[in-house]
Specification:
alpha/beta, Rossmann fold, 2 domains, 7-stranded parallel β-sheet, 15 helices, 15 strands, about 15% strand
Length: about 425
């Protein structure tokens, strides 16, 4: 499957596996992609802007190494990876290319091997350009497959597209993002994201049973994501208010971020007559959160604590629908995770190439609450439809694992 992939890989990213670095989908992407490459026997290095309190170098597995970068800057910017973003990007540009050339490319070339380098998003574009130039000066450019990947449109206006397209092959994660790049005169290859194989088949039965017992009220909906207008939180609130008016037991569980927009979202819920109840637990033990949810009575339950992966997927499974209804979604990783968990995914209609309306997902074409509410009512009125969507979604998820994505990658690179 990976015969065309080099023996070595380097991922360059701002986000990564540390809580400090895991802000959005990019952190999940590079963490799982790096693990998948290593599992295929490829010596993989993930260079990311990591927690300043953690080791600069960490062996994550036999063939996967983490390199935490810009720690000296992050020590002065403790909020998260994007705190002090400009200085970090400059430092990344100046110091990462020599490290990659000296420590990875030159030794690989001496062994007669090649290196795949994938740089992620706008912050790493200057580093990709600088790496190309450095490798050319050293006569090593033919030993490296250099790709730059666009996960979203953030920072596009600040990219030197002429230099970047000359330095690297441009890739992206969906046809929607390919269109966004084409608008800027940039051609790109589409290589979809993947999900880890471990989540295919659904969460543990005992955790699903515990959650189902703790959350007997129906219908039950879940929405998880950053508090951002692109995530169409207001559509979700308006639709849920309409459902709650007709179904007194309806409940919405939300897990947002720390963004200020969250205040407006919860204010909209209260203005719609929905009582909002915060739920916090001091422990990361899944059972502690299950117990807390069991005692919650609010129409909108606002989770303010960390949700372990296995519990999150169990929530997706027991919910009547998971509202991943973004208005602008480059790929839509949450929708695939919901499918893998055996849930009903409600997506938007931008980058979610895998979503087929009323076959493996519910797809919203607009941001109107009335559209979403109508679809949620349809699911309640037709349980057979809901069951078929769950089954088709799980089958879809099996086709979008990281090994499948690596197979696409292996066929789209040329050494």
């Amino acid at each position: 499957m990976t015969a065309l992939l080099p023996d070595n890989a380097v991922l360059l990213s701002f986000e990564g596996p540390d809580p400090y670095s895991m802000v959005g989908g990019l952190g999940t992407r590079v963490t799982e992609l790096s693990a998948a490459l290593a599992q295929q026997g490829i010596a993989t290095t993930l260079v990311f802007v990591g927690d300043p309190q953690r080791p600069a170098v960490e062996r994550a597995s036999e063939r996967l190494e983490y390199r935490r970068w810009c720690q000296w800057i992050s020590a002065y910017h403790p909020a998260n990876v994007y705190d002090g973003e400009g200085g970090k990007s400059n430092d990344f540009r100046d110091s990462v290319p020599p490290f990659v050339a000296d420590s990875i490319v030159e030794p690989a070339a001496a062994r007669g091997e090649y290196v795949l380098v994938v740089a992620e998003d706008w912050q790493t574009a200057p580093a990709a350009i600088a790496l190309d130039g450095l490798l050319r000066r050293r006569g090593l450019r033919d030993r490296v497959v250099l790709m730059w990947n666009a996960n979203n449109t953030y920072g596009f206006d600040g990219i030197d597209w002429t230099a970047l397209t000359a330095a690297a092959s441009i890739t992206t994660v969906s046809r929607y993002m390919k269109f966004e790049l084409h608008r800027r005169g940039v051609e790109s290859l589409v290589i979809p994201n993947g999900i880890p194989e471990r989540i295919v088949g659904g969460p543990p039965d005992d955790l699903v049973g515990a959650l189902a017992g703790a959350l007997p009220s129906r219908p039950l909906y879940v929405k998880v994501g950053r508090y951002d207008e692109d995530k169409r939180w207001m559509q979700a609130i308006d639709a849920f208010a309409a459902i709650r008016a007709r179904h007194a037991g309806a409940r919405l569980i939300v897990r947002g971020g720390s963004e200020p927009y969250g205040d407006a979202v919860l204010a909209r819920a209260r203005a719609s007559g929905l009582d909002v109840e915060d739920v916090r637990v001091p422990s990361r033990d899944p059972q502690a959160l299950v117990d807390a949810l069991s005692g919650a009575n609010g129409a909108v339950v606002n989770l303010r604590s960390f949700v372990p992966e296995e519990l999150l997927y169990a929530l997706y499974h027991v919910a009547d629908a998971v509202l991943a209804n973004s208005g602008k979604e480059p790929f839509g990783l949450v929708g695939l995770e919901v499918m893998a968990a055996g849930g009903v995914a409600v997506t938007g209609s931008t980058g979610e190439d895998y979503a087929q309306p009323f076959e493996n997902a519910v797809v919203c074409d607009t941001g109107h609450g009335t559209e979403l509410a109508a679809y949620l009512e349809a699911l309640m009125e037709d349980p057979a439809l809901a069951r078929s969507i769950r089954a088709a979604g799980q089958a879809t998820a099996e086709r979008f694992t990281w090994p499948a994505a690596l197979q696409i990658l292996s066929r789209k690179i040329a050494i």
